[in-house]
Design brief:
Layout lengths: L1 E6 L18 E6 L1 H9 L5 E4 L6 H10 L2 E4 L8 H10 L4 E7 L9 H8 L14 E4 L3 E6 L2 E5 L7 E6 L3 E7 L5 E6 L3 E7 L6 E5 L4 E6 L3
Parallel strand pairs: 1-2, 1-5, 2-3, 3-4, 5-6
Antiparallel strand pairs: 6-7, 7-14, 8-13, 9-12, 9-14, 10-11, 10-13
Length: 220
């Protein structure tokens, strides 16, 4: 399995975690300005993609020379730069996780970009990636789940955890958290926010219909 690391063009992505990874076990994609951030940090850049309208000509030249594979698209196009990166992932085989840095803004950036990235899971073409996609920043994590039983591990020290129904849900159950739910049915998207993990208890999320996003975040 190859794990995918995508660095998007959002402001101030937290790349510190990438220095501890084994480059041989990961495939690095730089999306637009994210390609420059990987290059500047001295991290691998297997594939650079985007319209590159947010960087200088000199930076673009350096990216072309640094990336193992490079594709530039016109600014006027049907897919966002991040969607182009995910289409590349779909063309690959034996994919493990798909971790995206710089995709949710880290508290800054454009809200429309955040919403567009969050809505990627609604696209049928990306359905096989839904449970692999993980948006990760210094203080925020977003993962997505399809129906079933899921063990949710805390990724930060004492994070808040919110369960967001992106569709109507059937038999939504939360066990092992401060505010539990038991076989709840919703007729519209809804958000159960600011829940908390319990010490020495496993958080089990289960549901039978729909798509759920789990957001972990810390205030400090």
């Amino acid at each position: 399995m190859t794990n995918i690391v995508i660095v998007a063009g959002g402001p101030n992505p937290d790349l510190n975690q990438l220095f501890d990874l084994d480059a041989k076990e990961n495939y690095y994609i730089g999306v637009d300005r994210g390609a420059w951030l990987l290059k500047k940090a001295g991290l691998p850049l297997d594939y650079a993609v985007g319209d590159f309208d947010s960087i200088s000509e000199d930076e673009l030249k350096q990216i072309r020379q640094y990336a193992k594979e490079f594709e530039q698209f016109p600014p006027e196009k049907d897919d966002t730069d991040l969607e182009l990166a995910l289409l590349k992932v779909l063309s690959m085989t034996e994919i493990g996780s798909v971790t995206i840095f710089g995709g949710i803004g880290n508290g800054k950036g454009r809200i429309d970009h955040l919403i567009a990235n969050f809505y990627l899971v609604y696209q049928e073409r990306f359905r096989n990636l839904i449970e692999k996609i993980h948006f990760l920043e210094e203080k925020t994590s977003i993962c997505f789940y399809l129906p079933g039983d899921h063990l949710i591990d805390p990724l930060f020290q004492r994070p808040y955890v919110s369960v967001v129904g992106l569709t109507p849900l059937d038999k939504l159950t939360l066990k092992g958290v401060k505010y539990e739910l038991d076989h709840i049915r919703t007729n519209h998207p809804c958000a159960y926010i600011s829940n908390e993990f319990l010490v020495d208890q496993d958080f089990i999320l289960s549901f039978e219909k729909g798509i759920v996003g789990v957001i972990q975040t810390i205030d400090k």
